[in-house]
Design a protein that fits this description.
Blueprint: H1 2-10, H2 14-17, H3 21-25, H4 29-45, H5 53-59, H6 63-96, H7 108-135, H8 138-158, H9 163-172, H10 174-178, H11 194-218
Protein name: ABC transporter permease subunit
Organism: Streptomyces beijiangensis
Keywords: Membrane, Transmembrane, Transmembrane helix
Length: 221
C-alpha cells in the first residue's frame, strides 16, 4: 500500500495539478491518511476477531454509547497526531522550498489549508470507523476505505476519460475533492472550492457512520 501511495505522489506533478507551495508542503497527507485509516479500523475491528465485542456490549448494552465511544476515541487520537504533524510538515515543506514565493503564516488561505488538512485526516478516519463497523473485518474494511480514496484517482490516471467524465470523477472522489481544501492559489486545478470539496468528504464520512451505526444496532455481535 505504501508503494501505491508513492506511485500516486510521484504521479502528481505539482506544476500540472497545483503550482501551490502550500499544497506541496502538505502533500505528506497521502501517507498520513494511511495511518489514520489503520488506527480507525483497528479501534473498531480489534474487538471483533477475538469476540471481545461481546464483553463490550455486555458492559455497555446501549450500542449508541459504544458507537460514540469508538468515534470519540478515533477523533482524539487523530487530532492529537494530526495537529502537530501537519504543522511540522508545513514548516519542513516551506524550508525545503526555500527561494520560492510562499504565503506568510498569517495568510488566511494558508491557515485554512492547514486546518483543512487536519479535518481531512479526521474525516478519513471517521469514514473508516463507519466502514469498519459495517464490515467488521480489518483487511476488508481497510481495503474498502483505500479503494474509495485511491480508486477514483487511479482510474483517472489509467483510463482514457473525457474531460467531462474526468471532472465528475474528481468532484465526487472523496480524496480528490477533500484535498481541494489545501488549495491556496487561484492557479490550481482543484476540482471544487476548498470547503465545498471537504464537504464532499464529510458527506462520505457521515454516510458511512450512519450505515455503521445502523448495522451495529441491528446485527448480533
Amino acid at each position: 500500500m505504501t508503494a501505491l501511495t508513492a506511485l500516486i505522489a510521484a504521479g502528481t506533478n505539482p506544476q500540472e495539478v497545483s503550482p501551490d507551495p502550500t499544497a506541496l508542503a502538505l502533500s505528506g497527507v497521502y501517507f498520513a491518511q494511511l495511518a489514520a485509516v489503520a488506527v480507525a479500523v483497528a479501534v473498531v475491528t480489534s474487538e471483533y476477531h477475538p469476540r471481545l465485542i461481546l464483553l463490550t456490549l455486555s458492559a455497555s448494552p446501549r450500542r449508541t454509547t459504544v458507537f460514540t465511544a469508538k468515534a470519540l476515541t478515533v477523533t482524539a487520537a487523530v487530532l492529537l497526531a494530526a495537529l502537530p504533524g501537519v504543522l511540522g510538515a508545513l514548516l519542513a515543506g516551506r524550508s525545503a522550498q526555500h527561494g520560492t514565493h510562499q504565503l506568510p503564516l498569517s495568510d488566511g488561505s494558508l491557515q485554512r489549508a492547514v486546518l483543512g488538512t487536519v479535518l481531512y485526516l479526521l474525516l478519513v478516519a471517521l469514514l473508516s470507523v463507519g466502514i469498519a463497523l459495517a464490515v467488521r473485518h480489518t483487511a476488508a474494511a481497510t481495503g474498502t476505505v483505500l479503494a474509495l480514496l485511491y480508486g477514483p484517482y487511479l482510474a483517472t490516471q489509467l483510463l482514457n476519460m473525457s474531460t467531462h467524465t474526468l471532472h465528475l470523477v474528481q468532484k465526487f472522489s472523496p480524496m480528490t475533492a477533500g484535498l481541494a481544501v489545501q488549495t491556496t492559489t487561484g492557479a490550481g486545478t482543484a476540482p471544487l472550492a476548498p470547503w465545498t470539496g471537504l464537504a464532499v468528504l464529510a458527506a462520505y464520512a457521515a454516510g458511512a457512520l450512519a450505515v455503521g451505526w445502523t448495522l451495529l444496532q441491528r446485527r448480533d455481535a
